[in-house]
Amino acid sequence: MAQFEMADVVKSLPINYFSEIDDRINAKIKVGDDVIDLASGSPDLATDPAIQAAMQAAIIDPSNHSYPPFMGKDNVKDAVAQFYKRVYDVEIDPATEVMIVSSSGVSVVAVPQTLLNPGDTILLTNPAYPPYFAAAKLAQATIYEMPVTAETDFLPDFDAIPEEVAVAAKVMMLNYPNNPTGAVATPVFFEKAIRFAAKYQIAIVHDFAYAAIGYNGVTPLSLMQMKDGKAQGVELYTASKTFSMADYRFGFVVGNASIIAALKNYHSNAYTMVPGFIQDGMTQALTGSLEQVEANRLVYETRLNTLVKGLQAIGWSVEASKGSLFAWFKVPDGFTGASFANYLLDEAQIAVAPGEGFGSMGANYVRVSVLQPTERLVEAVARIAALGLFGEAR
What is the per-residue pLDDT for 103? Predict the structure, then answer.
């Protein structure tokens, strides 16, 4: 069989980080190990029955049997605008400030492609969600990494960015509540980000994937709520986490009209639109009751607090995250993120995500998800305790 050379830009891409983790977990499961998967980021709670019913009704509607409109159905764009007004008290024009996308994962790639020419600079935090780095490579952009640490609440310091980098930068990706750290943005932080971006004509791309998931009294902040937030950037939103609809691949982008217009052109040429019946289901999700959203958040919060308190009780010095579906734990002395993840999988059949996969600043961390039932998290704590790694409980 003939062998064909892949394009240089594809050669530059790493193997998907999460698929590698899944392969290791599946190999353990195949030999009979009872693996507690705390590496996954896929929501485990069911989609609201009202949303399911809306999609079931929509799938037999003949209007959903042909191609959907290139820019998305008007009803769901109107619903996005209503949702932002209801939840964030933000006015969004559904005609010019909303773009429906076939998953927010698509928008993570599509927005940089829309705004960057080869060689342009993009600002990314380190650590960050790995697809941001892949998106930058696909756009053939120059990456400047903004280190974030516990000492800065995992928020970048814009004053530390060299002047020549700031001048060259065209796009800045932010993500709060953050994957992997669980940090949240504050009004003061967003104000600084907007001032910095406006000074250097940088488009802010805020990935708001975990918009509905704040813990212990924390309510995540939308960039669009900030003065000039909409003027200076866009916000990416997904149905996957807020509405437990990961399999349906629905997302949207809201914000700056010039970016939305460019994204519409790019998306309509590069991707297919979300099926019409899913758009109709999302209309129900966005305009209907949010009781299930809050109920799910409380489940995640209970799980997080159970896990953190259990680990603290066995002597592991960890803290609860403020949002997202993850906690970001510093590993014990003598380990790296990767070696500790391997140790937990081999010795306790617990899967976590090594911090190195999110950037060099994650080398001493692991990302731990709360996407297992509480009893499995209690079992995970017991297995870790049995390893005898930690000193006296606090």
Answer: 87
Is it the case that residue 393 has pLDDT exceeding 60?
no
Alpha carbon distances (Å) from 239 to 33, 51, 169, 303: 33, 11, 30, 21
Three-state SS for 177? coil
In CATH, what is the architecture of 49-289? 3-Layer(aba) Sandwich (3.40)
Domain 8-46+291-387 listed as CATH 2.60.120.920: no
CA atoms within 13 A on the CB side of 171: 31
Compute the distance between CA of residue 225 and CA of residue 230 in angstroms, rounded to an integer: 8
- Give the model confidence (pLDDT) of 20-48 as tens digits: 888 889 999 999 999 999 999 999 999 99
- The gap from C-alpha 51 to its chain's centroid, in whole angstroms, comes to 22
Domain residue limits, the chain: 8-46+291-387, 49-289
Strands (E), the chain: 36-37, 98-101, 121-126, 142-147, 169-175, 203-207, 233-238, 251-255, 326-330, 350-351, 353-354, 365-369
Give the 3-state secondary structure percentages of the chain, helix then strand then coil, rounded to 5.
50, 15, 40
